[in-house]
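Deviations from the work plan: none for this task. Representative record:
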Amino acid sequence: MQKSKKIVILGHFGVGKTSLIQRFVKDSFSDKYKVTIGVHITKKIVEVNENDSISLIIWDLEGTDEVQMIRQAYLLGTHGVVFVFDVSRPSTFQNLNSDLKIVAEKTPDTPLIIVGNKIDLVIQDELQSLLKDNNIEANYLTSAKTGDAVNEMFTHLATLLNDLT
Amino acid sequence: MTLLSQYKEQYINQSIQFVVIDLDGKVLESDQTFITLKQDGFIYDVHPFFISYSSILDSTEDSMTYNCVHLGEGDMELITDIRFIKKENHLLLVIYDLTEHYVSYQRIAQARNESIINSELVVLKNIELEERERFKNAFIQNFSHELRNPLTSIISITNLLEKTNLDNAQHQMVDFLKESNTNLRLLLDDILSISMIASGRLQLRNKVFNLLKLLELIAFTYTSKTKGTSISFLMDHDQKIPEFIEGDRLRLFQVLTNLLDNAIKFTEKGTIALKVILNQKRANKVSLRFEVNDTGIGIPSEKINTVFESFTQLEEEGKKGGAGLGLSIVKGLVELMGSEIKAESKSGKGSSFYFDVTLTYAMNLASKPIENTKNKTVDISKLKGDRKYKVLLVEDDERTQMVLFKTLMDTNLFFIDLVNDGAMVFETVINNNYDIILMDVDLPNVSGDQITKLIREFPFKNIKNIPIIGVTANVFEDNVDNYLKLGMNAVVPKPFDFNELLKAIVKLLK
């Protein structure tokens, strides 16, 4: 059996979790918003270096208003977490730091990557002051629409998880 | 088999699948209800979800349920709840097909999330629009304020120029210059009004005034304006309208004259008429309708609502001059009065603009004296004593300095000292006995209002009590109130009317 790692994608609804996965796995994008309910699971083999690859099992979870409401079963056996917010909608990052705290409690000792998505919708300068004003340190600023930083983000996480074993 | 158990088999069994796997994930048994599993195949090869089996083996729980797991491929929807139950040496999987239930739940979630996101976006959009609107109004206010200073100089210098020896041709040019100055000043006032209305800084100043006198003034103005043209002006008011009402005389005047000017602008020949109709009187309230009618080009019905927007003029009939602010000022002012301006029009036949406004009136005011009319020559005879008055002029703008200096000198009543730096004022005031100070507000180093405050706090009466007149372009109501609070005795707005300034001086020196 191929070495596999489970990652879960979390965040408020409508931030683009499904679109990020779609971009990464199928290199495609749709402007049409379809609400995810429950969980969709996809697999992608990711090359982590020249002669090594792992199978990334990506759990695309239903977005919630409250992180506390995430079903515990979905998080069982998680190796890595990606938390996504939408840079164009303040409601998705206003409580980011407390959201992240809850996530860390629910998935202890698990690497966490913070992603600000939809950067194509805001002006670069405003984005930086927005992050600063809200005291947010995002690891990646992505656009599922243009593909900006999407592969880098997933590959980075895959490499990180591979190195941990 | 009974009928009931047949049905049960048909409905329940069709939607539940049982699978047994060993501890390596190999399929031992499956009833194949809706997922076909190869015996001895690995369950995680069917769908990546099933890799979870190993997490369950690692956990301390005896069983675990996953809700709403999508197992479908491509367009085929299969949404399930899946229960893993640990048994000795194997795992039992119970898979419930709940696709129908979850699909309808998805539709509800879709509608809910979309409406939340949309309302968030609307709020954000509004914030952005308000921000832009605020910026625009602040910009316009600052800009028109900056224009006041040079305009004051132009107007004053034109007035001085008029008094010099001029030949006929030069006189004519000065007349044109004066007319342009007036137009520019009116336009500037309009722009300021509209931005103040938009930013909510304009407040009505309601006082008792003589309505009949106001209407007389309007009738006189527009009869003169239309004399010698193909338009005649008609005024018609209900005989029972009260003489004295409480309201903002200046703003009512502005509304009516804007409507009438607009009517004149778009009427070639015929009549323009102002009607005041008494709707009703009750207790001390009176409802009046003001109506301005014309026989002009009219407004096409599809354009009737856009005429009240700023900077719009109907294009078809050619530009008539002006910034297109008149009617939007009317709209804003009438709204401030708690009413709404309405328009009715027939293209080619003429237009009618009207509004109903409820005002307070006082019955026992019939004999109240009429207010002084502005622009009367100021009686300076009272000042002509045996000495000249010492005036300190605090002003940094050279042209305003020159104009004030010259016009004050011309009266032969004053000695004038000049200071152009806020920091120098105090020293000058202490070393001289001034009768009055004319104070600009925007000064280098220390502002005029702050100097005023300091003077008022001075321990010696002869300095503390010197009358101070603010001469400033910062004429917003809250600014003026603030200057008066800080100790100015009067505030004269720039561009200033010399008579107004002289009147203020006379009043304070008496």
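Chain B touches chain A at residues 42, 44, 47-49, 51-52, 54-56, 58-59, 64-70, 79, 102, 105-106, 109-110, 113-114, 116-117, 120-121, 124 (CB under 8 Å).
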